[in-house]
Amino acid sequence: MRKLLLVAAGVLGSWPTVQAQKLSATEQKIVASVQRHLPQTEQLLEQVVNINSGTLNLQGVRQVGDVFRKEFDALGFETEWVPMPAEMNRAGHLVARRTGKKGKKLLLIGHLDTVFEPDMPFTKFTRLNDSTATGQGVNDMKGGDVIILAALQALQENGLLNNTTITAYFTGDEERGGKGEAARADFITKAKASDVALAFESAAGLHTVATARRGSSSWQLKTYGQAAHSSGIFKPSVGDGAIYEAARILNAFREQLSQEQYLTFNPGLIVGGSEVEYNETKAYGEVVGKTNIIAPQANVAGDLRFLTEEQKENARVKMRAIVAQSLPQTRAEITFADGLPGMPPTPGNQRLADLTDQVSRDLGLGPVQAGDPGSRGAGDISIVAQYLDCLDGLGASGKGAHAPGETINTREFPLLVQRAALMIYRLTR
């Protein structure tokens, strides 16, 4: 173990706070337990990474859930599978709970699914060198899920879960969330019964956590023009066509909104021509057109990222105003669909970051600070951020999430388990 920093204890309200104190004898035992069980921890990570659990692979998501459920059962948690309506085409969620009267009531958040569906090339857990391993979802977020379990196992080995209230909630569709209130109704209920939410999405490293995350929503733009011979383009009787109207709108979005902090909007798909079909569910478009025909229709699909609901609504107002200023003989319409809300920074969230910083310093790992919200996407924790103090980015570190060759930093992984275990311990005293 690295040399421990000497510090003194302090309290801010009921929170463990940033005052220097060295690890107690009990905390040193927790760290020793984490280190002792690292081979089994890595075996568990390898086991779940080697099961494809793309969001739409319902059997695979449930299979990963079954693996984790056995681990929680062994720790004395009460476990249940929360199913989703069949028409939602989602696997459901794993919930593990224990109740007591000691310390804060914790909600530990993970997810079972990955972006890698069965029709994509499969990458098993593979050690690349002494500090890196690869595999589907190895850091986003099966590594984070395993950190939760390994931390709880270290606490249980030392009799430190007794009389605590902890809910571990592993959703089955974080990457492609199911539609409708049922998708997260139980999740919200569990959050309202908790004091603190800790989410184990990918870490930016040992020294950064997330006290805020941007939300996400989607938009769809449709433009219409007059079909005519291309030689008539721009004539008053023919107008500018649907594709030029789409281009006008997109460029105006870029010019008028692109400099606002934390606000981004990306047109991810565009189709335009004489005949257009766009399947939103499959994110797939088909188009027929000729260069000598003015396109009568164009479709654009995009996302909108924001930090607060106010920022989201203000952006939508501006985007609607831009859409309304049509080119000659064209018209356009834009629709918006909500996704995940934003998670703004709060004093309570910062206190959790301060706790992480103190634990990190006590472990000899150096300081931790809140990262830039603009560097992170949306996550499940945002859904419950309005109900309790929240912190994210406590999971595994690595590179290339959501892409072939995703990696995990295996040197930092055990240190992140130690940090998580001590945070849970201090919060539940």
Automatic annotation (TrEMBL):
Cofactor(s) listed: Zn(2+)
Gene3D superfamilies hit by this protein: 3.30.70.360, Zn peptidases (3.40.630.10)
Residue ranges annotated for the Peptidase M20 dimerisation domain, each copy included: 211-329
Transmembrane stretches, start-end: none
Record keywords: Hydrolase, Metal-binding, Signal, Zinc
InterPro entries on file: ArgE/DapE_CS (IPR001261), Bact_exopeptidase_dim_dom (IPR036264), Peptidase_M20 (IPR002933), Peptidase_M20_dimer (IPR011650), Peptidase_M20A (IPR050072)
Signal peptide: 1-20
SUPFAM superfamilies reported for this sequence: Bacterial exopeptidase dimerisation domain, Zn-dependent exopeptidases
Pfam families: M20_dimer, Peptidase_M20
Protein name: M20/M25/M40 family metallo-hydrolase
Organism for this UniProt entry: Hymenobacter citatus
